[in-house]
Amino acid sequence: MMTRLLPAAQSCGVARRSKHLLEEATSGAVIGAFLNVHAALGFGYRELIYNLALERELRAMGHQVDREVAVMVYYRGEPLARQVLDMVVDQKVIVESKATEILPPGADRQLFSYLCSTKLEVGLVLHFGRDPRHHRVICENRFKRLSR
Q: Facing residues of 122 across strands?
């Protein structure tokens, strides 16, 4: 597993390392489901196909899955625009899927901005590339601005 902590220069902060990971059970289940889906389908499908399979896999495991979740982005306390999250699992973990040959460089920053726009603290970038890879991104609530 690749863990990526982003710099504190963002509007949210960096998670501290501890004995227990935030939302460890849910993120572990998502990663397991991701690996199962990739093993079954391999590389080359569109993101939609992987997300549908991932949703089925997670629901079969008993998880709540919300797809295409719209959240509001605020600017100086005023609503600015909505952005759409690929998936939220158990109302705890944001999932951002990518189905490209090479993971786009800004994928983890995109997920970080999603976390900053919500009360959720943990997100996963799932890269359905030739080799499956995932990145865990954290934005603890104690660092979020109370502009909402």
A: 93, 138
H or E segment and range at residue 112:
helix 107-116
> Could you tell me the pLDDT band of residue 47, with boundaries at 50, 70 and 90?
very high
Instruction: Please state, in angstroms and rounded to a whole number, the distance separating the CA atoms of residues 143 and 47.
Output: 31
DSSP label of 9? T
The answer for residues whose C-beta is within 8 angstroms of residue 1's C-beta and 6 or more apart is 31, 134, 136
Q: What is the pTM (predicted TM-score) of this model?
A: 0.81
54 touches 45 (CB < 8 A): no
Query: Would you state the CATH architecture of domain 2-143?
Result: 3-Layer(aba) Sandwich (3.40)
- The pLDDT of residue 11 is 37
Residue pair 95/87 in contact (Cβ under 8 Å)? The answer is yes
Which residues share a beta bridge with 70? Answer: 84
Q: What are phi and psi of 19, to 5 degrees?
A: -65, -35
Q: Is 136 helix (H, G, I), strand (E, B) or coil?
A: strand
